[in-house]
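Box 3.1 A note on notation
Throughout this textbook, protein chains are presented in two layers. The first layer is the amino acid sequence; the second is a token string describing backbone geometry. Keep the layers aligned when reading.
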Amino acid sequence: MPDITTITVRPNGSLKVEGPFRLIDSVGNDIPVDKPVISLCRCGQSANKPFCDGTHKTCGFNGLEAHLAAPIPEIEKV
């Protein structure tokens, strides 16, 4: 296993996460992960969010424009 976390954007697919990581839900609870490599949903249609279940293959998801290196947009401060 790598000693750093690597997140790979898969063309028209999930986010592959490998290496040491901690996954936390929207209210701050740990999501138990017992694997060294996981895939996170990017299409929003997975029945097992935040994990990918392959639904992107049948729901018409097109993530090609988002998998290429691009500048990170500025986040507006409120």
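The chain has one domain: 1-66. The domain at 1-66 is CATH 3.40.5.90 (Ribosomal Protein L9; domain 1).
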